[in-house]
Amino acid sequence: MNRPQAGFTLIEVLVSIVLFAIIIALVLPLFLTSIQGNQTSWLRTTATSVAESWLDRYRSGKEPLLAGGPCVSSSGGVVSTGTVITCTYAVGFNYATDGIASHTTDAATLAQRFGPYTNTIKATVINSGINMQLWEVQATVKPSASTTGGGNLAIIATRFTQ
Question: What is the model's pTM?
Answer without folding.
Answer: 0.75
